[in-house]
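Lay summary

Proteins are chains of building blocks that fold into shapes. Our project writes down both the chain and a compact code for its shape. Here are two examples, one after the other.
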Amino acid sequence: MSQPDSANMEEGSLPFPQPREVRPLAPFGWLARGLSDLKHCLIPSLFYGFCFAGMGLLVTFVFEHAYEYTMAVTSGFLLLGPFLAMGLYELSRRRELGQPCTLTPTLTVWRRNAGNIGIFAVVLGIVFLIWARASLIVFALFYTTEVPNLSGFLKQVLSIENLEFLVVYFSVGLIFAIIAFAVSVVSIPLMLDRNQDAISSMLASVAVIFRNPLPMILWACLIVALTIVGFLTFHLGLVVLMPLLGHATWHAYRDLVEPLSAPG
């Protein structure tokens, strides 16, 4: 049973989303339900999958020509993912309501709460820009003369002699990844489903993580692992794996946030 339609409720009357506790292995259940949505809404889901694959090709192009920006662009891929996945959330919501899984209504679903989604986009955009700058600063600190060519860079990265660079680089990246993940776990589904404001949605996402640290760590690891698999399969895996994660995220939202109480 879906939550009451909050589109008819004024934003100010919405209560703060209450996090729920889930089992440690709950993310595997989200993936299973996401797979069911993917099979049921195959064509529109794959459309979004090909969009993700196109983004993956962009990352590869950047790596070939300016690899010092690759981690920043890859992070941007992960940051932009929730926005591109809005159509996938809508497909899962429509299936939940017994509505047809058609692509067209999902393309402009952002209009449902454009203002707050825009605020959220600005917040993630700022995180991305700061990380991109931090990434370049780390490169500059360790390569004070000139950045090596591509083959030299790969050789140095794989060398144990550059362990310090790798530790610093990935530690800084991890900080920004945690911030982005913390504010986005259920933010966009909340804004789309309930017309929730951006601030409450981001705070609710953080609350969800504090309420469920182990499931959220597992969920983050699954997202990263499946994304890496997608890249390692020459982006073909992204066509299926990204829609799977998008649909699964909707079911994560359903499990992690208390449903709205029906008006009395």
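And here is the second example, written the same way.
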Amino acid sequence: MAVSMAKVKELREKTGIGIMECKSALEETNGDIEKAIELLRKKGMAKAAKKSGRETKQGRIGSYIHFNGSVGVLVEISCETDFVAKNERFLELIDEIGMHIAATAPEYVSPEDVPQEVIEKEKEIYREQLKSQGKPDHIIDKILEGKIKSFYEEKCLMEQPYAKDPKIKIKELIAQFIHELGENIKVKRFTRYQLGE
């Protein structure tokens, strides 16, 4: 199916992805913008997974201070080359991640960063709550999986729904930028300061 340049332009503006990839996605989805966005997101995650093993020795440290001065964030995001580290879109990503951290106060970058003793303590608390509700042991284990997943979504930056678009997680937002910029990108660490804490 032939798609109009207006639709290609609209999809490009919504996603920031190259014209040829937008055109191809629209052709694959018969001109349906929403389905094309979903298709590009899936392709982005696949490309991001392929690039995830590549070393990231360049990058930037960004800062975000909330307008009233009550919350501040320092975040280190790495990429593969100095060229991308200076790219305007990469700098936009750093700003977006900084604002998100200020708004949601995650404690860890990803689930792998959560100490095992913290997870065990959470499981113990949830298990006691569920037992006091009279739940049988075989059901408690299934419920615990969901509770730990929710814990990760609350406490781990990469698993959190993106503050500006809760339909996607932060890891999917980063995958979109990996797809767009063509390099592996990683959030290395962050520190969040809140006045009085």
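What can we say about the second shape? The radius of gyration is 20 Å.
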